[in-house]
Amino acid sequence: xxxxxxxxxxxxxxxxxxxxxxxxxxxxxxxxxxxxxxxxxxxxxxxxxxxxxxxxxxxxxxxxxxxxxxxxxxxxxxxxxxxxxxxxxxxxxxxxxxxxxxxxxxxxxxxxxxxxxxxxxxxxxxxxxxxxxxxxxxxxxxxxxxxxxxxxxxxxxxxxxxxxxxxxxxxxxxxxxxxxxxxxxxxxxxxxxxxxxxxxxxxxxxxxxxxxxxxxxxxxxxxxxxx
Length: 227
Known about the structure:
Largest sheet: 6 strands, antiparallel
Number of strands: 8
Radius of gyration: 23 Å
Low-confidence stretches: 19-34, 213-219
Shape: globular
Order of helices and strands: HHHEHHHEHEEEEHEE
Number of domains: 2
Structural class: alpha+beta
């Protein structure tokens, strides 16, 4: 094998290595791909983060978890969004009387897959057991309507609770591993959330129940139309 051939092979390898390093550098410098903020599906999870310990059962979780951070760490690691279920729970299907029931917390723990209202129910009923002093309750946000595959989607559910005189927000399918706060009042959070989701919010209300009769006693706020 001639020295000239060996040198040519070596040069080719150096060129390929430089090209690979350049590609890696470009990948590192490239801006991250943003998730669709109009969707209720979660932002992409950082796969490099270690998974938290998974309790053996829902009862075990209720015995071990102490606060919203414990519950949110689990949800952020294991919650999966179900788009087919989102369509089944759309305004269109609810008005037609075809919407399925909201998943019970014990069942949701065993298979943490669903939509915003499933996670919100799990979050609320979990906090009612592990941290009742925080007065957890539902927050329903009504967005400008979005039509997907012929179905109207507008409502989004999460949980609001109190701590130290401030408001915190959790069990949000868009960012299931997060606890947002502290906020001095609900209006401050709503303004931030509308900007984060890049979607107009036309109304919101707090409620202790998902049932329709809660509307009579829920604190509801309808935002004024833009000028």
